[in-house]
Amino acid sequence: MTASAPPQAPTRPHDEQQYLDLIRTVLDTGAPRPDRTGTGTLSFFAPPNLRFSLADDTLPLLTTKRTFLRGIVEELLWFVQGCTDSTQLSAKGIKIWDGNGSKEFLEKRGLGHRRAGDLGPVYGFQWRHFGASYEDCDAEYTGKGVDQLQECIRKIKHDPTDRRIILSAWNPAGASFPLAHVLTRVLTSTAQIYHRWHSRPAT
Q1: What are phi and psi of 28, to 5 degrees?
Q2: Does residue 47 contact residue 22 with C-beta atoms inside 8 Å?
Q3: Cα separation, 189 vs 156, whole angstroms
Q4: In what order do the strands lie in the sheet with 166-168?
Q5: Which of 10, 12, 60, 64 is deepest in the core (most CB within 10 A)?
Q6: Based on the number of CB atoms within 10 Å of its own CB, is 103 exposed (0-12), middle (13-18) or buried (19 or more)?
Q7: What are residue 194's DSSP bridge partners?
Q8: What is the pTM of this model?
Q9: What is the pLDDT of residues 132-189, one digit of tens each?
Q10: Domain ranges of the chain
Q11: Where does the Thymidylate synthase/dCMP hydroxymethylase domain start and stop, copy by copy (predicted)?
Q12: What is the mean pLDDT of residues 51-63?
């Protein structure tokens, strides 16, 4: 008598498959729309949420296109520092913000009084100095505004059941362009931290 193989547990699709399925949905059903860049977009409102686990030291990094990991890490650290000067990233070979900080771009946005590289109150400023009056990227902002990031960390550690562990970057006044990933919310349980991230455009 031959022993039968044990039943296989159903395999969970790779996390990236959610992204690929969403791209297919947008390509198949998205509505063409003009946009400010003249490129055009396919619009699909309120797509399904994508869920990723960061357990076991995993990182939900796309593999179906080239991803600049060093740039991602450096940019995040730049946000955390509260920096709004794109030349600091550019000096490290990370040019992703150069276009938005160029003198030509700033002048077109009515912000020609700013020096090249001064992006205005973008992510880092909103995270670390929300509500403070923005002067320029060279000013000292220590102790000014609300340090949302520090407050989120404090609540996660000392008041984990708080339902207001929120990090908001949406404050369109003075930024050189509308920000994309605008809201993060954290919910904690006994053993896990859940994080929800909302992006204005899903590019």
Answers
A1: -80, -35
A2: yes
A3: 10
A4: 166-168, 181-188, 193-199
A5: 60
A6: middle
A7: 187
A8: 0.86
A9: 999 999 999 999 999 999 999 999 999 999 999 999 999 877 777 788 889 999 999 8
A10: 68-203
A11: 17-175
A12: 86
DSSP state of 38: S
CB 100, CB 93: distance < 8 Å = no
137 in Cβ contact with 118 (< 8 Å): yes
Residues 6+ apart with CB under 8 A from 94: 68, 70, 71, 74, 75
Structure tokens at 132: 């403070």
Distance CA 135, CA 80 (A): 19
Nearest to 148 by CA among 77, 75, 82: 82
Three-state secondary structure call for residue 128 = helix
What is the three-class DSSP state of 16?
A: helix
Tokens at residue 115, please? Answer: 């020096």
DSSP at 193:
E
Place of tokens 């455009």: 201
DSSP string, 54-103: -GGG-----SSS---HHHHHHHHHHHHTT--BHHHHHTTT--TTHHHHSH
